Write the structure tokens for this entry.
Amino acid sequence: MSQVRNPGARTLHPLTAVEQFQVYTERQLEQIPQLQRLPAELRRSMHAVAQVLPFRVNRYIVEELIDWDNIPDDPIFQLTFPQPGMLAPEDFERMAALLDAQVDPAQLRAVVQEIRQKLNPHPAGQRLLNVPRLDDKRLEGMQHKYRETVLFFPSQGQTCHAYCTFCFRWAQFIGDKELRIASHEATLLHRYLKQHHEVTDLLLTGGDPMVMKTRHLAAYLEPLLQPEFEHIQTLRIGTKALSFWPQRFVLDEDADDLLRLLERLVRKGKHVAVMAHYNHWRELDTPIAREAVRRLRDTGVVIRSQSPLVAHINDSAEVWARLWQTQVSLGIVPYYMFVERDTGARRYFEVPLVRAWEIYRAAIQQVSGVARTVRGPSMSAGPGKVEVQGVAEIGGEQVFVLRFIQGRNPDWVQRPFFARFDPQATWLDDLHPALGEKAFFFQAEYDAMQTRAAL
């Protein structure tokens, strides 16, 4: 990795026209030159939706990733810019009318808050069931849902280079401290990990940890090289930076420091996995994006890719097949195809489970075995990660075949179970037991977990 070990040799080569990070929020929407060619009604709808759901985009996305001759259908435009269908029709009309009337800000905030509460800001029991305890105190910036894996939300990483319109973490970005999950206490994280030797994996998440300066990232990760953390084998970093700001790994002032940190962790025996969020193959098309992947892989880290299957962006087997093929050619490991979570703008992005399975199956058929590492479609639901394995007929009844990839109880993992076929179902909560069963095998235990947590 000579380019990293000799940063003096690094030059700002013209990999991309965008080298300086510039962000646009709802307040700067009208400052984006490309938007001026769009109809006023579309811009009005963007402002209305962005009052409720967070909006943030940067100049790299605007200038390098979006095809402005294909608006509004361009997938990266759909991925990053507010769309009118993201709110229920009555809520959208209400917001647009309030903006047109230029109502008092306090009145506007009250309506915004009312609408947000309908959007399930914290799905899958993440505030009730996932928060661990240390010395009988809740560790609000951490989650421990599965035995082997702890999630940590560093406070310096509670934003992103841009926001995905479908993001299930949208509640982190709206300025409501009651809804935010974050911690700046590295000492509490390290104390908790010392006491829990069943934990093998630490996942830094957010927001996006890669918005942090390298020195902050090092403060969380480097102490884990001490002997008392030998049980922490894998360090995962969830990030969209490879798509939304690949300059983080190439041109940023501390890019070389970041790569040295990752290389040092690998050299000391940790498995470092960058959990990259790629929603469309176009995100891998620019020279700077491919250079970022190359430099990261040179450190010895493994890049694993994951994404939800979402309408308007990637609900096509051909898109997924090309995405996985491109990733494999660059040395990225396809890891997860998720089902869009039951939160935020789900009404606009959700795809029926049967359709998700059909897309997955058709895409898998188009790629070789090295790309078939990807699992899915998977629902990150309250009880665990539930995979739709297919549709079958058993005893004359059409059923979904399901299994746990991960579960709150490890004994649930890999146990097949069946739900009545429902062509409209989009989430686990829409499904009902098949074959005469009164409840799914895990339901009573999961209900008991929720009852205990609520006490």
Q: What stands out?
A: The two ends are 53 Å apart (CA to CA). Residues 18-117 form one domain. Residues 317-330 form the longest helix (14 residues).
